[in-house]
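Hi U.,

Before I forget, here's the chain from the pilot set. I'm dumping it here mostly so it's searchable later in email.
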Amino acid sequence: MRFLRRKEAESAESETGEDAATETEEGRSKAHTPSKGRPTPKRRDAEQRKRGPVAPPPRSTREAMRRARGNKEERKALSAKRREIRATQRERMMAGDEKYLMPRDRGPVKAYIRDLVDSRRNLLGLFMPLAILIFVALLVPDPRVQSTTTLLCLLMLVAMIFEGVLSGRRITRLVRERHSKEPIRGLSVGWYAFIRASQIRKLRVPKPRVRPGDKV
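Structure:
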């Protein structure tokens, strides 16, 4: 009987020791992260692996010159391709392609405003030439020329502002009639028309689709 009790006590102690060892190993596995077995790669080495293998150094001066010439030709070809893409994008933008227009010029409402502005001649188209005239007049040493030019330009500016207000109201009314389901803000429409009309016709972006006098 003593022998059986001693054997049961020893088996219970062994099971308790095994459970404690298992818990200790689990705690160590959670608290301790095993090492990777290799050092962490440097940033320079990692970037170099991303870029791919590095070409070996040239073995002669002629080979180095040939490589430099090839790199120069590649850069030229890439630059020419970029210029071609930009030229294509500008050409389509000038033609009024919605995909290449700036966000402020997109939409049927803006296209209709541009057509309304481009279908009429107005004094606002002389805004930039008038600014150049004022600058040239300020360079003239004669006070009479300066005063006369300044007065003339002031009268022209007043006439332009008056015409811009009337044109903006007219265009806003026509836009609301044509696009009655669209949310139209009179101030936004008038300002867009004013900016369009104040530009020289040949420099307007996109190019006018109608001629002066055409019905829109």
